[in-house]
Amino acid sequence: KGMAAPETAVATLNAMKMLEPRQIKPVSVETERIIAVLDETIAKLEMSSLIPHIITSLDKFADALGPEITTNLMEHQKLSDEMENLLSGLEEGDSVRAEEQQGCLQLLKQRLKCSVRNVLRLFLANPQLCQALKYGAWERGAPAEVFIKAFGEFRNFVLERLLTSPVEEEEKSQFMDDIYLRIKENSETITALQAELAAVIQTREEEIHKKDNMIKDLKTSIQDLTKDYKVGIQQIKEEGEKQQEAELQTSQARCAVLEQDIKELEAQLKALVLEHRASELALRKRKRRLEMEIVNWMQKYDTDMGEKKAEYEEINAVYTEEKAQLSLLMEKHGMLLQEYSQIEEERRICKEKEEQALKELATRNRAATRIQAFWRGYLVRSFFKSKRKKGKDKDVGKGKGKGKGKGKKAKK
C-alpha cells in the first residue's frame, strides 16, 4: 500500500500530460499551411458575419470604407433583398413555376456567393479596416457565433491531430483502453454498491412508510381542528359583518349630519367673505387716508426739524461758550476743592486729637473711680474683719471657762 500511492500519482500525472491540449508550434511547412488556411477561413467567417451590420450602418462608415467597398456592399444588399423576396414568394402549387423559381434561386445563390467573395477580398486587402471592424461594438447572430466557435474548435482539433505523432497516438489509444477497463471495473463496483444502496433504501422506505402513517393520523387530527377553526372563523365573520352593517348605518347618519354642517359652514363662509371684503374696502380707504396723513406729517416733520436744527445751532454756540466758562470754573473749583480738602484734613486731625484726649480722660476717670471703689471696699472689709476677730476672741474665752467646770463635775 505504501508503494501503490506514488505509482498512482505518477500514472495520474502522465494521464494529465497526455490528455492536456498541446501548445507546440507547427514543426512542418504543411502543418503551417493547413493552420493558415483554417485561420484565414475563420477570419473570413467573422468578417462575413459582420456584413449585415456594416450594411445597416453604411452611411456612418462610408468614408472609412471607400467607394469600391460601399458599391459592392450596396449590390450585395440588393441581391439579399431579391433573395428574400424570391423565398417569400416561392409557390408550391404550380410545378413549372416552382422549377423557374428554383432556377432563379440557384442563380441568385451563385451571384450572392460571388458578391460575398468580392466583399471579403476587398476587406482582407485592407487589414487595418478589418481590425477596426472586427473589434467594433458589433453583435453577431447566435447561429453565426455558434458556427464560428465550432469551426475554431475544429481548427484546434486539427492542429492537435497534426502535432500528435503515431507513437503518441498509439500511447493515447492504449491509455484510453486502460481507462475503459477501469471504467468497466468501476461500473461493476458501482452496480454492487447500488444493490446495497437499494436494500438500505428499502429499509428506509419501510421506516418512512411507518412515519407516513403517523403523519396521516396527525393530518386527520389537524383537519378536524381546521374544521372547528373554520366554523369559529365563520361565526366571527358573521358577527363582524353584522357589526360592520351597524357601524355603516351609524357612519352614513353621521356623514349626513356632517354634510349638513358643511353646507351651513359654507353659507357662513360666504357671509364672512362678503363681510371681510367690505371691511377690507373700508380698511383700504383708511389706509389711503393714513398714508396721506403720514405724508403730511412727514412734510411737517421736515419743516419742524429745519427750525429745530437752526435753534440747535444757536443753542450749541451758546453751549460751547458756556462750556468754555465751565472749564475755567472747574479749574477754580479744583483749586478751591484742594484747599478745602486740606482744611478738612486739618479739622479731622484736630478732631481726632480731641477725641483721643477725651478717650484718655474718660479712661483715667474710670480707672480712678475703680481704684477709689476698690479702696473703699478694702477699708470696709478691713473694718468688718477686725470686728469679727474681736468677737471670736470673746467667744473663745467663754468657752474655755465652761469646759473647766464640766471637767470638775465629771471628776466628782
Automatic annotation (TrEMBL):
Pfam families: IQ (PF00612). Residues 399-412 have a biased composition (Basic residues). Residues 386-412 are annotated as: Disordered. Keywords: Cell projection, Cilium, Coiled coil, Cytoplasm, Cytoskeleton, Flagellum. Residues 208-282, 340-371 form a coiled coil. Component of the nexin-dynein regulatory complex (N-DRC), a key regulator of ciliary/flagellar motility which maintains the alignment and integrity of the distal axoneme and regulates microtubule sliding in motile axonemes. Belongs to the DRC10 family. This is Dynein regulatory complex protein 10. The lineage of its organism: Eukaryota, Metazoa, Chordata, Craniata, Vertebrata.
